[in-house]
Amino acid sequence: MDFLVWLEGTGIANAIRTIPWMYPAFETGHYIGLSLLVGGIMLIDLRVLGFARTLSLRSMIGLLPFVWIGFIINVVTGSLLFIYGATGFGTNKAFLLKMTFMVLAGLNALAFDLSVRRSAADWVTADLPPQHVKIFATASLALWLCVVTTGRWMAYL
Amino acid sequence: MAFLEWLQSTSVGVMVAESLWGYPLFETIHTIGMAMLIGSLGLINLRVLGYKPELPVLETRRLLPLAWIGFTLNAISGALLFTSDAVTFFNSYTFRVKMVLIILGGLNAALLGQKVFREAPAGSAAVVPDTAAKWIAATSLVFWFGAVCCGRLIAYLP
Predict the structure, then answer these.
(1) Fewer CB in a 10 Å sphere around the end CB: N or C, chain B?
(2) Would B158 be classed as within a structural domain?
């Protein structure tokens, strides 16, 4: 809690609270980031599950840089948004749920990534994702949708 | 104006405005639909602009169902959100700009569809979008990302 109080009192946090355009700008940036992150991951996950089959699996997995850019934008904007009201957000159940889902989504993504690296030449080229990879893709979709949902709940809990 | 006030007063409008779960639920759906729309249209437009040349241009149309689902989710959730405070939203300049950008985005998408996907000679394996198509794709991206920004800024700008 002391850490949250300290965060909320930093110069940056004060700037965000006093300069009117900062919070809206970072929130908007957070939505752009989420469009790239969630939009991108949806395309990849759905493709792994067989949607838009005539677009090569390898090319679609190649969209990951967008997902990363979106993720980095959101870590940065998210951190700035967080310190604005650290004591409130830090104890907000929806926020804590959101972070949990994010960690799970991150672990899931890591597992997917390792799978791709280990057998890249095989199932990606053959467009035959093994069952466990399809499960990663489904979990990914579900987890990121949970992140979006709990993110929105933050304003209401 | 009277119509908008009536809209706000309907049971739907009141439900979205006053229930604990109404607004968050439809806002969440709206965000998810947005991600679907931006993801699918984003990739189609980027391909027209030359990104990921190994993807056959004509095949990116396979992403359109996702775009339509996203758009439909957002049209419905957007309408429901609108009814909760119809007068305020209608009078908001930021909301109006967002609506204009969406219309422009839609027109652009139709234009691109006509130019790149429908005018392609039958059986053409390699379609190379021309400069005009690239301009349409580029402005589409501006319109859609602009709509996303405006959407969030409705809460902050007049």
Answers:
(1) C
(2) no
**CA–CA separation, B112 and B132 (whole Å):** 9
Does A27 reach chain B within 8 Å, measured CB to CB?
yes
This model of the complex carries an ipTM of: 0.91
Nearest C-alpha of chain A: how many angstroms from B73? 14
The answer to whether the Cα torsion of A117, A75, A48, A59 is positive or negative is: negative
Nearest CB neighbour to A31, from listed B43, B60, B148: B148
- Alpha helices, DSSP H, located in chain A: 2-8, 11-18, 22-48, 57-61, 64-84, 86-90, 93-118, 125-126, 131-153
Q: How far is CA A15 from the centre of its chain?
A: 26
Nearest to A39 among B23, B36, B59 (CB): B36
Structural domain contains residue B77: yes
Are B60 and A55 a contacting pair at CB < 8 A?
A: yes
Is the distance from CB of A44 to CB of A136 less than 8 angstroms? Answer: no
| φ, ψ at A154 (rounded to 5°) | -55, -35
Output the six-digit token pair for B120: 């392609």
Range of A75's domain? 2-153
Total domains present in chain B: 1
pLDDT in tens, A19-53: 999 999 999 999 999 999 999 999 999 999 999 99
CB–CB of A62 and B27 under 8 A?
Answer: no
B24·A155 Cβ contact <8 A: yes
